[in-house]
Write a structure and sequence with these properties.
40% of the residues lie in helices and 14% in strands. With 648 residues, it is of the alpha/beta class. It folds into three domains: 299 residues, 3-Layer(aba) Sandwich (Rossmann fold), CATH 3.40.50.970; 154 residues, Thiamin diphosphate (ThDP)-binding fold, Pyr/PP domains (Rossmann fold); 132 residues, Rossmann fold (3-Layer(aba) Sandwich), CATH 3.40.50. A seven-stranded mixed sheet has the order 9-8-10-11-13-12-17, sandwiched between helices. Strands 2-3-4-6-5 form a five-stranded parallel sheet, sandwiched between helices. A five-stranded mixed sheet has the order 14-16-15-18-19, with helices on both faces. α4 packs across α13, α6 runs parallel beside α7 and α22 packs across α26. The structure holds thiamine diphosphate, 1-deoxy-D-xylulose-5-phosphate and magnesium ion. The site of 1-deoxy-D-xylulose-5-phosphate has 9 residues, from loops. Its EC number is 2.2.1.7.
Length: 648
């Protein structure tokens, strides 16, 4: 196998085109075999096999910098740059990351995971190169979906101004996760079919020149009439006007054409954009036919394409429960509209989009725009629900503050993937939304203990006059029955799940309520019987309840699957301190002040100390503390996390 001979990009240089074509076939087989076992981003990587080979053939990584936008399509890059043996550990704790990581390889020039960052980073590297008098190449590989992100356009604008030597490879496969949307997608479609324009140009010129005497003059005038002719004749005008020389479109599966074009753009002294047309899922029929469904896969049978039966519970996912609930609510309330930033499937809005196409908006990978679009909708009497992953909402923080909360507009944030997401690692953990939303005045934040409460929270949120975030985790809910009737949940009210006899209360949020119940079962064997509280509102806290607990001498253990700094525990400590209740023993369990890497969610929870055992220990610990002297320091410690000690 040629692939056995590839341990670095240098091994490609000596290969003939025929050998590169054979290598491409071998890499496709490798991807299908490996990802059918580990799962991962499937369609995107099948689509960039030839493009990656051509890039590493023409450029000299790691001296030349190649930045992969989003980075979910960097598996082939990792295979070529000496990491193929590690693929059985892909996205597992201590194993190969699913995105480029500078700490993983010198060939990973820049860490990615969130879309639309590559051109900015590449421009930064080009500026640094020139300031340092170096001469290497910098290449940003960005998809048509990521190109709909505002950051990408901001970077194009600046790059065209600076006119630095920079190569942008636009990987256009007509897909984001779902089909790509927006005027940019339409523009690219025109460029893709541009061959007709080019053909038309030759025919028109040929015709003009055949007209006796004036024809040639008209053709020359047309050629000279820069704008109209350039616009009409020269494809890629949008990019040309931004200061980029546009090349393409080129077939992204034709190794000869790709290497020729890359050799050509490599010589350009100014910014260039090479438009490459690829097929997402290329080489695996099911992925070619359903590139959205096979954007990422769980382990599957490569023969049948069927997902392996995972042991996951029969309970519905929180996402599906949300997706069904918002359709039911929208049936009753025509003011409800749903917004997504290029994640209709992931956020469960597919059904809503089919049922209410006029009230559904996929804005592309543009969370900032989605947030302020929602603000405009809310300011005009609609009830927008912006469904967005916790990690991606980070992109719209100023819009949340400036456009929504200052004006106290009734926007509902359906914050999905809140908590540890697992395999996608540091860039995707939903760790920070409580901290970053709790500090914003006018914001209400709630998290359900199960799917039935999620439905009622969504209903409650849509009754509120101001901004509200309903956050829920990735994956299966708890399989509880769903109330048929809608009812509102009193704002700021906590719920006693288990009364308990010992003077200690476990104040838990979301899936940590179930963990607290597990801990209580363990403690019962030792005669300890804590109260368990469902802290279903993080903002506002249930101050009356806290006052009663503190006044009656209870000790507290807070448990959350979010960053401790700024989370539920912080809120409780701030509240107690703010009310002069300094003697209450408190232990706070949650995510430590570290980025949580990829791995199974269970493994990661153990690594950060969010286990029933650790909750039980904390309860006994805080009971032992008893009424602590006023001078006591409340602990906010996470665990002494030694992440990355997993399988190498
Ligand atoms: C800021 C941000 N929002 C949403 C996502 C989720 N996401 C991951 S890949 C993807 C689509 C990317 O499309 P494209 O750039 O065309 O790459 P392709 O998958 O087609 O290769 C999206 C929306 C993300 N990674 N970052
Ligand atoms: C690369 C990217 O950002 C998305 O594909 C993300 O990995 C989807 O996450 P879920 O699998 O949780 O929908
Ligand atoms: Mg794409």
């Amino acid at each position: 196998m040629l692939l056995d001979r590839v341990n670095g990009p240098a091994d490609l240089k000596a290969m003939s085109l025929a050998e590169l074509r054979q290598l491409a076939a071998e890499i496709r087989r490798f991807l299908i075999e490996q990802l059918s076992v580990t799962g991962g981003h499937f369609g995107p990587n099948l689509g960039v096999v030839e493009l990656t080979l051509a890039l590493h053939r023409v450029f000299d990584s790691p001296r030349d910098k190649i930045i992969w936008d989003v980075g979910h399509q960097a598996y082939v890059h990792k295979i070529i740059t000496g990491r193929k043996e590690r693929f059985p550990t892909l996205r597992q704790f201590g194993g190969l990351a699913g995105f480029p990581k500078r700490s993983e390889s010198p060939h990973d020039a820049f860490g990615t995971g969130h879309a639309s960052t590559s051109i900015s980073a590449a421009l930064g590297m080009a500026v640094a190169r020139d300031l340092k008098g170096e001469s290497h190449h910098v290449v940003a590989v960005i998809g048509d979906g990521a190109m709909t992100g505002g950051m990408a356009l901001e970077a194009l604008n600046h790059a065209g101004h600076l006119r630095k030597r920079l190569i942008v490879v636009l990987n256009d496969n007509e897909m984001s996760i779902a089909e790509n949307v927006g005027a940019m997608a339409n523009y690219l479609a025109k460029l893709r079919t541009d061959r007709t324009y080019a053909k038309m140009k030759n025919e028109v010129e040929h015709l003009l020149k055949r007209i006796p005497s004036i024809g040639g003059k008209v053709a020359r005038t047309l050629e000279r009439a820069k704008d109209s002719v350039k616009y009409f004749w020269v494809p890629g005008m949008l990019f040309e006007e931004l200061g980029f020389t546009y090349f393409g479109p080129v077939d992204g599966h034709d190794l000869a054409a790709l290497t020729t074009m890359l050799d050509r753009v490599k010589e350009c002294p100014d910014p260039v954009l090479l438009h490459v047309v690829t097929q997402k899922g290329k080489g695996y029929g099911r992925a070619e036919r359903a590139p959205d469904k096979l954007h990422s896969v769980t382990p599957f049978n490569p023969e049948t394409g069927k997902a392996e039966k995972s042991s996951s519970s029969l309970a519905p996912s929180y996402t599906d429960v949300f997706g069904n609930a918002i359709v039911e609510l929208a049936e009753q309330d025509p003011r409800i509209v749903a917004i997504t930033a290029a994640m209709p499937g992931g956020t469960g809005l597919t059904k809503f989009a089919q049922r209410f196409p006029d009230r559904f908006f996929d804005v592309g990978i543009a969370e900032q725009h989605a947030a302020t679009l929602s603000a405009g909708l809310a300011a005009s009497g609609m009830r927008p629900v912006f469904a967005v992953y916790s990690t991606f909402l980070q992109r719209a923080y100023d819009q949340v503050i400036h456009d929504i909360c200052i004006q106290n507009l009734p926007v509902v944030f359906a914050v999905d993937r809140a908590g540890l997401v697992g395999a996608d690692g540091e860039t995707h953990q939903g760790a920070f939304d409580v901290a970053y939303l709790r500090t914003v005045p006018n914001m209400t934040i709630m998290m359900p203990k199960d799917e039935n409460e999620l439905r009622q929270m969504l209903y409650t949120a849509l009754q509120l006059p101001g901004p509200v975030a309903v956050r829920y985790p990735r994956g299966a809910a708890r399989g509880v029955p769903l109330d048929k009737e809608w009812h509102t949940i009193p704002i700021g009210s906590w719920e006693v799940i288990r009364q308990g006899l010992s003077p200690v209360a476990v104040v838990a949020m979301g899936p940590m309520v179930a963990l607290a119940e597990e801990a209580a079962d363990r403690l019962a064997e030792e005669g300890v019987d804590p109260m368990i509280i469902n802290a279903r509102f993080v903002k506002p806290l249930d101050g009356d309840f806290l006052l009663r607990l503190a006044g009656e001498g209870w000790a507290l253990v807070t448990v959350e699957e979010t960053a401790l700094a700024g989370g539920l525990g912080s809120a409780v400590l701030e509240w107690l301190a703010g009310h002069g209740l300094h003697g209450v023993p408190v232990r706070c369990l949650g995510l430590p002040d570290q980025f949580i890497p990829h791995g199974g969610r269970g493994e990661l929870l153990r690594a950060v100390g969010l286990t029933a055992e650790r909750v039980a220990d904390a309860v006994k610990d805080v009971l032992r503390a008893g009424r602590v002297p006023r001078a006591a320091v409340h602990t906010l410690e996470g665990s002494d996390l030694r992440l990355g000690q997993g399988r190498r």
